[in-house]
Amino acid sequence: MNEMIELLQNHVSVRDYDDRIVSDEVKNELVKSAQSASTSNFVQAYTIIEIKDKQMKAGLAEITQFSGHLAKAPLVYVFVADLYRHAIQLKKKDVSLDGLRNMESMVVSMVDATLAAQNMAIAAESLDLGICYIGGIRNDLTRVKELLHLPELTVPLFAMTIGYPASKNDIKPRMPLENVIATDTYQTSLTDLSTYDEQIRSYYQNRNNQQTDTTWTQKNVDFFSIVRRPEFAQFLLDQGFTLK
Length: 244
Ligand SMILES: Cc1cc2nc3c(=O)[nH]c(=O)nc-3n(C[C@H](O)[C@H](O)[C@H](O)COP(=O)(O)O)c2cc1C
Prior knowledge:
It is built from eleven helices and four strands.
């Protein structure tokens, strides 16, 4: 196709980096690329916090429980959905913050932050860096809030580790197109995952590390059989969102 499409379709999360540091020049390009993402109504409702301090990295790694590579990653960013600076602007003009506190604005800020992150991920991969999103930081949102001194109307969504790959996993096959793409209306046939399940079973049995015998369906059933992070809603309320 072209190099860009090849890059996108060759993505794998990288959790093992060599010792090379990422230069300031590269870091600037990464952040500028993140900023170039589309942003709902041009609100630019996010902040990207680079974590340089080793103890902070270790603290965040501990919170994730299963993503210890964060402690050693050359570059770590935390993506924060952020309506705090908008609140300051509104307060200065004596305008109610109700328009910032509702679900719609909260989702806007989360989508904005996520689009920026994905732009950064692609930019990084185009420079032969490897990346891994780390949602595991949401295991203890209050602790992350304390560590990063997050004010109201901000939500830490995930971290991203970045570095030059020391090793890479095999590419994880995505669902067949016919399970993903519908025309005009939703088609319940999208949910027949039997072919994909066998493909994923084979992937897990044959990949170059942590081989296992499971299917995509089974993994999802296991994952969603537990109510995860039930404290998230309360955290959002504490941060000043109304969830309405
Ligand atoms: C928002 C988000 C959060 C994630 N959190 C973690 C995480 O905490 N730890 C981890 O090792 N991988 C994490 N991942 C990576 C996914 O596990 C990975 O993207 C998925 O298994 C597909 O594999 P691939 O990226 O290699 O194709 C996260 C990905 C996303 C998009």
